[in-house]
Amino acid sequence: MFTSFSTALSALSAHSTGIDVVGNNLANLNTPGFKASVVSFYDLVTQSLGAGLGETQVGFGVARPNTIRQFSQGAIKSSSGDLDVAIQGDGFLVAKEKSGGIVYTRGGNLQVDSQGNLLTSTGQRVQGWTALDGAPSTNAPPADIVIPVGSIKPPVATSRFSADLNLNAAGATAPTPDAFSTSIEVFDSLGKSHIVTVAFTKAAANSWNYSLSFPDSDVTTPVAPVTGTIGFNSLGQMVDPPAAGPFPSIAVAGLTSGAADMNIEWNLYSGATPRLTQFAQPSAVSANQQNGSAAAQLVRVGIGNGGVVLAQFSNGVQTTVGQLAMASIRNPESLLAVGNNSYALSARSALPAIGTSGTGGRGVIAGGAVENSTVDIAREFTNLIVLQRGYQANAKVITTVDELSQETINLKR
């Protein structure tokens, strides 16, 4: 009978732990990326009464319960934050504490500090790969992601331009030849813009003369126009110059801006496909492009799908400046919660595999979204009621055993 005291006390302790877990789950009902825990109860070894053959077995109560964090998928909701991300599937973002320790998180509310470091909402440095221009190399070990806050993107001098256009096959050649012209903005090494004009004059059936010219006011010595002929076949396809080249180019020297000399090539093909056609339709430009750009201020940074960090500049150019790293851990339930919505490896944890979104069994990073907590308020309230009833029942056992003890003591009086 007196064993019932310790048995009931173990149950009070176990149910109290269960209530603590439920309370923690409910407290984090709105914590992004939070994973709810469940309580696992198990009994203690039993004692055999009588002959010891197991006919009468009485347990010693319940052990301290295990808490198991369930890494199920939380609901993904859209967010207005440019730096918000959510993970769809397995995996964690990798972050570094101020102490230098590595932690793992599913909390996707990211931010940037005054030095350009990409941080979690609690100040840990997000790990990944940084690149100022072009795709970052993900073969190197991940490091702090640094965004060029307040920087100026240097200008890029134009070395090539193209124009997709049609020249009217029905145009006259005499007495007044059909003519058409278009212009494109190019940039020198200092980022100053200039206008290159391309003029066409119909010379004969399936043949057009062209002239590339540069403004005289932009150079100390006028640049002579570059002229030539473009030929088409009976299907309206350009055949001269051929796809193998060479292509026309205009050399510009003595710019009044003080920029370096330029040599701008006119790219007439997209692969093996001509950019110019001659059909019986009005002469018109459908697209043009050039590979230069002016100097520009960084105006916005965001994270897109796949964890790509994108920087948008004032000239409209969008550049990849970073890539978030993701960690895949085979047994995430073994991780230790260390606060700040983060987890650390325990002695039972498998080594994390670091890579990019959507590779090696890792989930996919969604930009402009946040993962909700996995806490189910209805289930937690149900668990709370069950645990409360269990606590009350075992408390009743203690009071009952106490009354029986008093009756036993009173027998000798």
Describe the protein.
This protein folds into 3 domains: 3-71 and 374-410, no CATH class; 76-152 and 298-371, no CATH class; 160-294, Flagellar hook protein FlgE (Tick-borne Encephalitis virus Glycoprotein, domain 1, Sandwich), CATH 2.60.98.20. The chain has 2 helices and 34 strands. The protein has helices at residues 3-27, 377-410; strands at 37-40, 46-49, 56-59, 66-69, 76-78, 85-88, 92-96, 102-105, 111-112, 118-119, 125-130, 143-144, 152-153, 160-168, 179-187, 193-204, 207-213, 226-232, 238-240, 249-252, 262-266, 269-270, 273-274, 276-279, 284-290, 296-303, 308-313, 318-324, 326-328, 336-339, 342-344, 353-355, 364-367, 369-371. The strands form 9 sheets. Strands 7, 8, 11, 12, 13, 26, 27, 28, 29, 30, 31 and 32 form a 12-stranded antiparallel beta sheet that branches. Strands 14, 20, 21, 24 and 25 form a 5-stranded mixed beta sheet that branches. Helix 1 (3-27) packs antiparallel against helix 2.
Number of strands: 34
What's the helix count?
2
Report the end-to-end length measured between terminal Cα atoms: 21 Å
| Main sheet characteristics | 12 strands, antiparallel
Global morphology: rod-shaped
- On the 0 to 100 scale, the average pLDDT is 91
Instruction: Compute the CA-based radius of gyration.
Output: 37 Å
Helix content: 10-25%
Low-confidence stretches: none
- The secondary-structure class comes to mainly beta
How many individual domains? 3
Q: How large a portion of the residues is in β-strands, by DSSP E?
A: 35-45%
